[in-house]
Amino acid sequence: MSITITAFERSPDGGKGLARDTRVRWALEEAGQPYAVRLLSFGAMKEAAHLALNPFGQIPTYEEDGLALFETGAIVFHIAQRFAGLLPVDAHARARAITWMFAALNTVEPPILDLFTARILEGDKPWAAERLPLVGDRVRSRLRQLSARLGDADWLDGAFSAGDLMMVSVLLRARSSGILAEFPNLAAYVARGEARPAYRRAFAAQLAVNTAPPPG
Amino acid sequence: MSITITAFERSPDGGKGLARDTRVRWALEEAGQPYAVRLLSFGAMKEAAHLALNPFGQIPTYEEDGLALFETGAIVFHIAQRFAGLLPVDAHARARAITWMFAALNTVEPPILDLFTARILEGDKPWAAERLPLVGDRVRSRLRQLSARLGDADWLDGAFSAGDLMMVSVLLRARSSGILAEFPNLAAYVARGEARPAYRRAFAAQLAVNTAPPPG
Fold this sequence. Notes:
Two copies of one chain form a homodimer. Chain A is an alpha+beta fold. Chain A has helices spanning about 20-30, 40-45, 50-55, 70-80, 90-120, 130-150, 160-170, 185-195, 195-210; strands at about 5-10, 35-40, 60-65, 65-70. Chain A folds into two domains: about 5-85 and about 200-210, Glutaredoxin; about 90-195, Glutathione S-transferase Yfyf (Class Pi), Chain A, domain 2, CATH 1.20.1050.10. Helix content of chain A is about 55%, strand content about 10%. The interface of A and B includes residues 57, 66 and 96 of A.
């Protein structure tokens, strides 16, 4: 079996590991699976060949023999189902770990993406300065609840799982705003994720792409 | 086995079916599973007893013998795994149906929620009128891509699945803005979802709660 994913030829974050291929690379490293990467320019992502793989014209995608998937959450979930190491075997613990994957993507990530929109995409708009604190407070409200649930545990529900992989990846996107640091147990949780050998290999692999000499 | 979910004692939408318990009711109806509902006031949702079930203080939650879950996507997925009727048996088709669940929740829903924020939560802000078209165009951009993928098919990938259940539910939240109607094949897709007997039973059940005389 061979696995191929897609990633940015040049990530908009310059290699900080925030592009979503890092989440898939991390999952594959936790599962001990080798993979190939096809790099795409922004132009190529919007062309028919890639839209056939991902109708929203984004990276990452995932191909293995006879199967093509898009959407980071679905790809990480597929890897976690297919290979050992990312989901508990016990059915109830497994359902709870999957719950944290969805919570990361649908409850915690949206306000964090909104913060990115407010700071960067709408950073030059006349309302930017007045709106930013509102958006920041929505992120704080979610992180306060998550921080209360995590408490002083290492991971969200027992051993490290795909739920933690996704939550750490989502929280990383809140770090540059300074808001993550307001919740020391969450900042420590993210640091524990980053310290995992699989994460470090995934991070290094995406960094190598983004610091390579320009193609051609 | 007995299933209990939670829902708003009074939904903020007054019974339009947009609260997330409708998605879980719909899944349970498709699976032919009876369920009980525990209704919660806004106050009770933020109390310790409910926060133990859902750390973000939201509805719905899901309890069956010995298992407690939160997060709509995870609950619908659990129902779809546990009972027949919502996911294909073929492994590849199943992975693709799950992909659409994640795509609905993490790619299509966030800009639609943003539209809600811009229209309602920030509707009285000085930037509201100028910002709204920007946010609307982000929704249009996603729906244009989804519309191109759906084409004239009935459902997103073969037979109706939990992926369609989630996508229809998410798109319903864009209808009142008028943007859904700009994409006739998506509007027809949503109408096909609403016409399913299971959806109609779910909708009627949440409407009955929201049109009942006030408690006490």
